[in-house]
Amino acid sequence: MTSGMRELYQEVILDHSKRPRNFRAMADATHTATGNNPLCGDRVEVYVRLDGGRIADASFVGQGCAISRASASMMTEALRGRTTEEAHALFTKFHGMVTGDSGNAPDGPVLGKLSAFAGVSEFPVRVKCASLPWHTLEAALVRAKETVTTEA
Predict the structure, then answer these.
(1) What are the boundaries of each domain within the chain?
(2) Which fold has domain 3-147?
(3) How many CA atoms lie within 13 A of 23 on its CB side?
(4) For residues 29 and 10, what is the distance between their CA atoms, to the nearest angstrom?
(5) How confident is the model at residue 119 (pLDDT cuts 50, 70, 90)?
(6) Cα separation of 151 and 143, whole Å?
(7) CB contact at 8 A, 140 and 108
(8) Model pTM score
C-alpha cells in the first residue's frame, strides 16, 4: 500500500470516528444485538430494519475506540439496500480482510471504502475493535439474545 493510500484511508477512518454516520438508536428496528469487548471497553448496539428481505436501515450506538466507531459507521452505510445474504457475504469478506485471512474469503462484494481497514490486520489487537460491530450485526440478523463478545 502506498503512503498516499494509507493517508487517505486514515483520513476516512478518522472522519467516520469523529462524525459517525447512523449513530442513533432505532425505535422501529426489526433486529438488534449488543456487542462488548471487555478488555478495551468497546461496546456497541446494532439496529437493523428489514423490509422485504432487504436492509432498509441500519444504525448503532455505543462507545469505543476510533477503529470500532469508524467500523460501525462505515458498516451501517454499506448495508443499506442489501439482502441479509449479501450482508453475511460482506461480513465474511471484511472479516477475512482484517484478520489477514482474505485468501479464504469467498468471492463476493467489493469492499469499497471498507478497504480502509486493510491495515488493521497488521495490528492483531485492533482486529477485535474493527470486527466487533460486524459480529454484532451477524448476531442481530439471527436474533441472538446473548451479548456478543470478542473474547473466547
Answers:
(1) 3-147
(2) Sufe protein. Chain: A (3.90.1010)
(3) 16
(4) 31
(5) confident
(6) 20
(7) no
(8) 0.90
